[in-house]
Amino acid sequence: MKVTSKQIAELCGVTRGTVDRALNNRPGINEATREKIMKVAGELGYRPHFLAQSLVKGQTKTLGIVLFDMYNRIFSQLFHAFEAEARRHGYFVYLVLTNKDKALEIEYLNNLLDRKVDGIAMSPVNMGPTLDSFLKESGVPVVTFTNRVSAKVPFVWIDDKQAMKTAVHHIASKGYQRILYVSPPLRYKGKSNIYVPEQRYKGFIEACTELPDISYTVITDYDYLESLLRLIAESDEKPAILCSSDIYALDVMRFLKVNDIRIPEQAGVMGFDNIDILHYVDPALTTIDFHVDEIGRRAAEQLIASIQGRDIPRRTHVGYAIIERDSL
Q1: Could you report the per-residue pLDDT of 232-291, keeping only the tens digit for each?
Q2: Cα–chain center distance at 324
Q3: Which segments of the chain have a pLDDT < 70?
Q4: Could you tell me which residue ranges the HTH lacI-type domain spans (predicted)?
Q5: 217 has which bridge partners?
Q6: Backbone angles phi, psi at 50, to 5 degrees
Q7: pLDDT on residue 58
Q8: How far is Cα of residue 84 from the mean position of the Cα atoms in its chain?
Q9: 68 close to 123: Cβ distance less than 8 angstroms
Q10: How does DSSP assign 139-192, residue by residue?
Q11: pLDDT digits over 213-232, tens only?
Q12: Residue 99 CB: number of other CB atoms within 10 A?
């Protein structure tokens, strides 16, 4: 049978208000009484009725987090950090996966709102004024990461454009004069929210413009590996293959090995994200590292601050660094 705060009050000889102050760690109660109430509650296996509390307090102590999927290790790392920070503040987290389906994303957002979550963190697939208005009208605080919605919605991530510029300059400093840039998501431009790939592409083009000795080709094909092989064969000049994420870089490295193209002797490869499975890759992949755990932690921290009525920045950038390994 479920134990109630009323029963605890009767057993301890105090009012329900005193029990409520003890269980919720609020002032106005002496320490001996608090300890007695907590001891009785523990012995009886008392668990708070969150639904009843939400009716009184207007909060459910729950958050929603909306991700593309868990195939990319970036998202699983980010979620673990987000959930740990939320739990530290006493929040339970609902996780939903959209699989980059725009209709499913809206359905899941509505489901989370129906469950009266106090706030939502999301990596959006949808974009534009329609999503902006939807989030505003939802009535709950929202924080985004990876893809941005608008300047009105708080965003926690890295400066992708500047980070990619840093990557290009690093490649040039290694003596490469030809770069093959692999970014298949760019073919969805205008069809879906690809803020991150677009920012990385802008950084790539800006950097190449600043380096007149660099020639480059951008590869966005679905069959990007075959296109890559053709472009490598067309020139005797050793290229650097710069990928918009480590996932593509790992595919490229596997494909080059299958086709007997040595890395880095015949082609250099560089990724972006520094996902944790790179520890098992040979040759070790040069990449851009950023603090994914910090993004998850700060997204949760800022979302909770917003729920509490505090002002939070509209844009938060975490740091990044080149991790130089053997593939360039």
Answers
A1: 999 889 999 999 999 999 999 999 999 999 999 999 999 999 988 898 999 999 999 999
A2: 24
A3: 1, 25, 48-58
A4: 3-57
A5: 180
A6: -65, -35
A7: 63
A8: 14
A9: yes
A10: -S-EEEESS---TTS-EEEE-HHHHHHHHHHHHHHTT--EEEEE-GGGGGTTTS
A11: 999 999 999 899 999 999 99
A12: 11
Instruction: Return the HEC string of 180-243.
Output: EEECHHHHHCCCCCCHHHHHHHHHHHHHHHHCCCCEEEEECCCCHHHHHHHHHHCCCCCCEEEE
Cis bond upstream, residue 264 (ω within 30)? yes
3-state DSSP assignment of residue 291: coil
The CA-atom distances, in angstroms, between 88 and each of 15, 27, 84, 170, 240 are 29, 21, 6, 39, 44
Give residues with Cβ within 8 angstroms of 105, minimum separation 6. Answer: 66, 98, 122, 124, 125, 126
Residue 168's Cβ-side half-sphere holds a number of Cα atoms within 13 Å equal to 29
10: Cβ contacts below 8 Å, ≥ 6 apart: none
Query: Measured between alpha carbons, how far is 36 from 303 in angstroms, rounded to an integer?
Result: 35
**What is d(CA 114, CA 106) in angstroms, rounded to the nearest whole number?**
12
- In one-letter notation, the amino acid at residue 126 is N
| C-alpha–C-alpha distance, residues 324 and 36, integer Å | 58
Strand 119-122 versus strand 142-145 pairing type: parallel
Distance CA(96)–CA(68), nearest Å, equals 8
Side chain identity, residue 128: G
Residue 3: its pLDDT value, please? 74
DSSP for 19-85 reads HHHHHTT-SSS-HHHHHHHHHHHHHHT----HHHHHHHHS--SEEEEEES-SSSHHHHHHHHHHHHH
Give the C-alpha separation, 139 to 113, whole Å: 9
Dihedral (Cα; 204, 69, 227, 220), 10-degree rounding: -40
CB-based contact 8:44 (threshold 8 Å):
yes
Domains, the chain, with CATH or none: 5-48 (1.10.260.40), 60-156+292-318 (3.40.50.2300), 160-290 (3.40.50.2300)
